[in-house]
Amino acid sequence: MRAPVGVAWLNLGGPSGPEAVPDFLRRMLADPYVVPAPKPVRSILARWVALRRSPRVIGHYEKIGGASPIEGLTRDQVE
User: Fold this and answer.
1) Could you read off the pLDDT of 14-70 as tens digits, one per residue?
2) ∠ at Cα 12 (65, 54), nearest 5°?
3) Which of 24, 63, 67, 70 could form a disulfide with 14 if both were Cys (CB 3.0 to 4.6 A apart)?
4) In terms of Cα–Cα distance, which of 10, 9, 14, 12 is closest to 64?
C-alpha cells in the first residue's frame, strides 16, 4: 500500500487590477524577507517605491490583460 501524497500550491499573489497595484507593491516591499532592513526604513522605502513605480507597473499589467494572471494559473494547476 502506498502512503498518501499531499501537494500544496502556493503563490505570492498579484494585483487583481490597476487600482490594486500600489497597495500590492507596498505590501510586498514591506516584507522583511523581500527588503531586509529595519521596519521604519522598510516601511518608508516601500511606500516611496510603490508610489513611484505604480504607474509603470500598471502599464505592464495592462499589456497582459490588466491584472496578474497568477491566481488563474494556480487554480488551473490545482484542477
Assistant:
1) 998 999 999 999 999 999 999 999 999 999 999 999 999 999 999 999 999 998 998
2) 50
3) 70
4) 14
76's CB contacts (< 8 A; 6+ apart) are: none
Place 9 in a pLDDT band, splitting at 50, 70 and 90: confident
CB 3 within 8 A of CB 59: no
CA separation, residue 7 to residues 60, 67, 71, 77, 78 (Å)? 32, 26, 17, 11, 9
**CA dist., res. 20 & res. 1, Å (int):** 48
Q: What angle do CA 60, 51, 54 make, to 5 degrees?
A: 10
